[in-house]
Amino acid sequence: MEIEIRGLHKSFGDTPVLRGIDLEVARGETVCVIGPSGSGKSTLLRCVNLLEEPTAGRIVVGGAEVTDPEVDIDAVRRRIGMVFQQFNLFPQLTVAGNLTLPQRRVLRRSKARAAEVARENLARVGLLEKADAYPAQLSGGQQQRVAIARALSMGPEVMLFDEPTSALDPELVGDVLSVMRRLAADGMTMMVVTHEMSFAREVADRVVFLDDGVIVEEGPAAQVVGAPRHERTRNFLDRVL
Ligand code: ADP
Ligand code: MG
């Protein structure tokens, strides 16, 4: 099991946001997390790489217990790539610079090796020809693909996506989703928070419906999105589809 979440609780102050999440993601599996705004989707992803500290529960990623107080958080984060709604590229660096800097700083790769890995991953997202451009010269969709390539350049075992296409103009969404589709097909282990139900249906091995901090329903996409069993899931899907 690549990601194992057991009894995860997260409160902010007195407010419980995650109220007992149990979830497993197998190696090479893509799990889409859907649910209303405020249901705890981002908090769930952020707990997996300890951007948020769980209030209770246990999370294991690739055999290492993230929630072990003794764990080397930086070592764990190196194995987990995260892509956000906002691309968070360094505006003063070229595309290539965005990909090489974290490799040099965090992984201590040589300049030549970092550049080589950057080129491989830019090619993977179809943006090799933009290596010398600056983020501001790219469309939102291209910037998000650079953000994905930057995360991939760190050689993660797991990729977390938090609504990666929500900030994009509709015509730019498709290219980002194709990159993610290919990544899933290549066997990456992925957790994807998304409102793109067609993507979930097509790519997810499993869909998890989160509402009010609990998993209400989970199963194959065809079931959860196509034939939901719970009224809360149906109500949500009626609103987004
Ligand atoms: P989603 O991603 O599903 O929209 P979030 O995980 O962002 O939901 O948020 C779930 C709930 O937790 C919301 O009510 C939100 O206001 C609250 N919340 C998230 N982050 C914080 C924080 N840092 N401090 C206090 N409350 C937070
Ligand atoms: Mg969110």
UniProtKB/TrEMBL annotation:
It comes from the Bacteria. The keyword Transport applies. It is found in: Cell membrane. It is a peripheral membrane protein. Residues 3-237 form the ABC transporter domain. One of its GO terms (molecular function) is ATP binding. Keywords: Amino-acid transport, ATP-binding, Cell membrane, Membrane, Nucleotide-binding, Transport. This is Amino acid ABC transporter ATP-binding protein. It comes from Streptomyces katsurahamanus. Belongs to the ABC transporter superfamily.
